[in-house]
Amino acid sequence: MNPVRILIADDHDVVREGLAAGARGFLLKTQAKHQLVAAVDALAQHRPFFTGSLPASVVEALLRPGRHPAKTVPPGDRLTPREREVVQLIAEGRTSKDIARELGLSVKTADAHRANVMRKLDLHSVSELVRYAVRNRIVQP
What we know:
Blueprint lengths: L5 E3 L3 H9 L4 E3 L4 H13 L4 E2 L5 H8 L17 H11 L4 H8 L3 H15 L4 H10 L6
Parallel strand pairs: 1-2, 2-3
């Protein structure tokens, strides 16, 4: 089960960075008390939740990500070359069996590399891993 991520903030940079990091919901601090249950319910049903009064400047910033690039971890800072290969193959949609065959590993070893990458990068889903790979130019979007 993936954790529920709701961002409660008023600062536009915090909102942008939180959403870029995977938050699927947003509440203004002034509305959090009244809408938190509705936000959790929506996210539990795999629907994003955004407060009705999201400032236009925040929406504008989110629609123009090039203007405020998301912070990324420099490639290679945390991963071994083999782990980077595994990240690339996962981001390209390969299964553990495919990765094992392509890299000459056992499926168990490919799974271990995947688990190590997820742990090192504190990622909880393949979609987060794909975002990491794109942001760090391990794969092309």
